[in-house]
Design a protein that fits this description.
The chain is mostly helical. The protein is built from 44 helices and 10 strands.
Length: 949
Amino acid sequence: MDAGPAKQRAVLAALLVDAGRWVTAETVIDRVWGEDAPARVRSSLYAYIARIRRMISDLAAQDTTVTENALRTGQLRRGPGGYLLDVPYDRIDVHGFRRLVDRARAVERTDAERVVLLRRALALWRGEPMAGLSGAWVERTRNSWEQQRIEALLAWADAECRTGHHMAVIGTLTALVAEHPLVEPLTVALMRALQRAGRGPEALACYVVLQKHLAEELGTDPGAEAQQVHRAVLRGESALPPAAGTWPPEGPVTARTVPAQLPPEARGFTGRQEELARLDGIVAAAAERPAGVTVAVVSGTAGVGKTALTLHWAHRIADRFPDGQLYVNLRGFDPSGAVMTPHEALGGFLDALGVPAPRIPADPQARTGLYRSLLAGRRMLVVLDNARTCDQVRPLLPGAPGCLAVVTSRNQLPGLVAVEGAHSIALDLLSADDSRALLAHRLGAGRVAAEPGAVAEIIARCARLPLALTIAVARAATGPGFPLAVVAEELRDRHGTLDAFTTGDLTADVRAVFSWSCHALSPSAARLFHLLGLHFGPDISAPAAAALAGRPLPQARATLAELTRAHLLTEHTPGRYTLHDLLRAYTAERVLADVTPAEREQALDRLLTWYLHTADAAYPFLARSRQRVPLDARPPSCVPLDFATHGRALEWCETERPNLVAAVHQAVAAGRPDIAWQLPAVLWGFFYLRGHLHDWLDVTRTGLDAARAAHDRTGEAWGLVDMACALTQVQRYDEAVEPLRQALAISRELGDHYGTCRAMANLGYVYRRIGRPGKAVEYYRRSLAVQRALGRTGSESIHLLNLGDAYLHIGRLDEAVSRLRQALAGLRAGGDRWCEGLALDLLGTAHRRLGDDAGAVAYYHRALDAHAEVGHHWGQAHTLANLGDIQLTAGEPDAAQANWRRALLILTELDHPDAEAMRSRLRRPGQAADQPRVVSGTSELSSRYNPVR
């Protein structure tokens, strides 16, 4: 039967995928027209709906069987919920397919039963789904269905092999492998079937083809399962698939991991029975009609209990999702603005799913694709807490049926309802009965029943807001002998107005509750709580809180414990504390109202000074070759952390990075331009080792602007060089020239010989990078002459290293080796393993060019040892690339590719711009090693390690 033009068929498809469920007109429009919907789109929709109704009516008139069994009266209904196409599932092939697959996946099924069910399911596939239709929703849906088909085919092939019918699957799998050459499980299944059929050589050939495709397209090796089957074929051992019950087959990236990330549920949760019943109904409907991924959005104002409800319900139904539970706090309304990106959240999910860090893709779309591939065929619960926008959520949604995603947000997120068909549950304030039940559960039924008037007033004064009630309960619980009337009176006396943050509907009484809660604290705890309003970062450590308060660390820890017990602070990881959004906003208000300007200035100065001097304590471990940044004398009251090892220093900087970036901006706002430029300067080694290029550019520019505004010429010179360094890391070399020229002029003006030398050395490096090696040698020589005149032998080694690198690039090999050996001796004497690794790598390249391949390999291996010792990941990547080049020349292409892949993994993990060049290198494995390329010890390594900054 002719189903009409493409748009009409698309409307029909948009209704059929949710047959038996109400679909809003907005959802149909978005699925069919997307963002290109015309102004009169609803008129077009109504016309297509009318034609579909007539088509169904005509079909029913022609076939009495259809009328009786499929299309009952009111087949296409219109109601408040939109449109409902009332068609039995067994009449819709995709739903019939899913139902058969679900039956086959039952653990109690035998393999023979699985084979029968999966054959029936796969027989329902006839050509391309929704053929002839186009659009974003169609493509997403089609891709999701194709993934489900592949999962079912893999399960069918495994079951056939386990029952001895391996010959039945070889033809189908061969065609599928040709169609999807990068889907490892298909090749694995084909290899198993071929081996069982006595065709071992063909199985091995399949592995070789897979290995080649992965190397050329993705720059990776086959996964663990493929390697295991390959070894089994080589040894003549059995390569049968896992025993029945391990559905679906294990993916190519990692062994099956069952995460359990749900945080503990709130103690004494009560009420919300209507919302819990709605959530239960969503799960039940999804189980009955698995039409796609099920998404629920729990929305409501801040403090209304969205997370508490969701976690309580999630724990209650967790056993229905045997493949695990994922949880993330997206920080959508964090007052600091530190909203979690989908990219960051996916990294955490992939880690929880067992993906090794080097194999987590840097590309956002690849990261989402891998995440959805791992969830395909699984039954998992995904909780996305505190979301801000639909775009933040969409990449985190699973791509295939079987999973449930629950999103909490202060926003309604209507886009998820319209496009993804999400179920919306809006939380209101607690009912009076639920509020009373909460008090009774926490304080005891007898105490609550004895003072009904006071209880009613507490509930009213707390505006039935769960967060406010919880704080009031905490206060009342600490004084079990106090009448509740006293609590009600205190709330009455301290009522005010707490300004709304996003939704604008919070009442005055919430501030009264917070104020009263602070009043119950000890003076030191109340003071620290207010001072926390000065801290811009997303969390704070105990030592930083001690600095803020100006108290010894043991006293600060005791105060933090008191605030935690009062539910005013959360210790989210040992020794690190955070505030709920409303409480943080409240502290920001109170610190302005209750703390004098002089005390605020002193507290903030203590905190910023502590961050600066602790970062400076880490500086020698991370930038041994660089001169110390000129800082004012540390105040006696400032007690920065001490670091015993390079690893501890690096770990602290990484943990505190968001706070350190915030501190730079806060220093500007606080009128401390000196700290604003000094803090990025002492963090130079950390950013150089770890990347975080966006943050590096941000803080260096901010510090430079602050120094200029304060007419601090020393700070301006440092800031100019630091900003130029950050620009070189993103390969914006032309933009780095002018800042370095300005820094050189300022340093000469100030008579700062070290600054002059530093600017000249960096100019030499930039000129080498933009293809002016003669100019580079000139600046390197001049900087070396200044160092020698100053008698600084340690820095002289670094300048010799730079000069040797420049000679290497212009082909003056003997001079390069001479300078590099001199540099190496000085670096060893100074214990500078970081730059020693660079010198060893460059000596390896020089010896390679001189024809001494054995000597070059030895230097490269020593360089790798040095890089690994100091955690210099970029150095490892570039030296591995150089080692691969020489192995290719020596006729060892497999060893070369192995080292290039190791380099690519590091560069990808760092989200480094050289990663793409390395992928291109892997796609051309036969390219001569001396041809120009981006990743090379002779063309790119120094771009990451010019050590004189």
